[in-house]
Write a structure and sequence with these properties.
This protein has about 280 residues and is an all-beta fold. It has 2 helices and 20 strands. The strands form 5 sheets. Strands 1-5-4-3-2 form a 5-stranded antiparallel beta sheet, with no helix packed on it. Strands 6-7-8-9 form a 4-stranded antiparallel beta sheet, with no helix packed on it. The chain has a single domain, classed as Tachylectin-2, Chain A, CATH 2.115.10. The chain starts with a strand and ends in an 8-residue tail after the last helix. Pfam families: Glyco_hydro_43 (PF04616). Belongs to the glycosyl hydrolase 43 family. One of its GO terms (biological process) is carbohydrate metabolic process.
Length: about 280
């Protein structure tokens, strides 16, 4: 058993199993593979539980980042960012029959374009039931980080079309440039609906460090166009957030803070306390 304030983790993602009365948390922890932790109260965690270890000859040998796990058509699908020396970083899909794995390869390789540096793919099911992956085209390649979407086949194994640009990081009023003054970061998209509105939570850097903001689709559809809230949700050196409904039915926000120094921890906050009047649907 390990307490929340003892557990170093980045990019926390929580899957709730109401029948078992458990929270399952995944994240980035610097290993070649992914672990999970389970809890009944979000404070005390059992683990690590190995849920994915790469098979012999698997293409990625480093940067195992930001796993997400989604229940889709009765199975559990993990989307995770991976890289190798001779390959661009990309989002690979894995599948399992249990949220605790073992997760196995789904498809032949990353769903993101092979010649793009990409990360943080998340699953979005549109209003017609079609699956998409929303992901970040990295600032390392384009300077002004892009938020993109690519349609997937029903098995989630492969893309069925070309990526669509949704917006660039610099379009958000709160996002500030890094490094050379032209580099804007896109990180960690998470989509949800509220009051019929389609919103995206994502991260970049603000005036006080790593930050978490909200963007809104004017059309209510993934294609947008997208507008951006003037101020971030959180701007004190923390981000890569997502929402989940806790075992009492309350919507919770989780993100990691601070953003470095081996001190990263998962934080859990009632979403209503941060954003009055913005209740997710579903």
């Amino acid at each position: 058993m390990i307490t929340r304030d003892q557990l170093r983790i980045r990019d926390p993602f929580v899957l709730v199993d109401p029948e078992a009365g458990l929270y399952v948390m995944y994240g980035t922890n610097g290993i070649r593979g992914f672990d999970a932790y389970t809890s009944t109260d979000l404070e005390n965690w059992d683990g690590p539980i190995p849920v994915l270890r790469p098979e012999e000859g698997f293409w990625a040998d480093r940067d195992y980042w930001a796993p997400e796990v989604h229940l889709y058509r009765g199975r559990y699908y993990m989307l995770a960012s991976l890289k190798a020396e001779e390959a661009c970083r990309g989002t690979q899909v894995f599948v399992a029959d249990s949220p605790l794995g073992p997760f196995r390869l789904c498809g032949g390789g990353p769903v993101t374009p092979g010649d793009w540096e990409c990360l943080d793919g998340t699953l979005h099911i549109d209003e017609e039931g079609k699956p998409w992956m929303v992901f970040c085209h990295e600032w390392l390649q384009v300077h002004d980080g892009e938020m993109c979407a690519v349609p997937l086949d029903e098995s989630l194994e492969r893309a069925t079309g070309e990526p669509v640009l949704l917006f660039k990081a610099s379009e958000a009023p709160w996002s500030v440039a890094r490094h050379t003054g032209i580099d804007y970061i896109t990180d960690g998209p998470f989509l949800f609906r509220s009051g019929g509105e389609l919103l995206m939570m994502w991260s970049s850097f603000g005036a006080d460090g790593y930050a978490l903001g909200l963007s809104r689709s004017i059309s209510g559809k993934l294609a947008g166009p997208w507008t951006h809230d003037e101020r971030p949700l959180y701007d004190k050196d923390g981000g890569h957030g997502m929402l989940f409904r806790d075992l009492r039915g309350e919507w919770m926000l989780t993100y990691h803070t601070p953003n470095g120094g081996s001190l990263e921890r998962a934080v859990f906050v009632p979403f209503a306390a941060m954003r009055a009047g913005l209740a997710p649907e579903g």
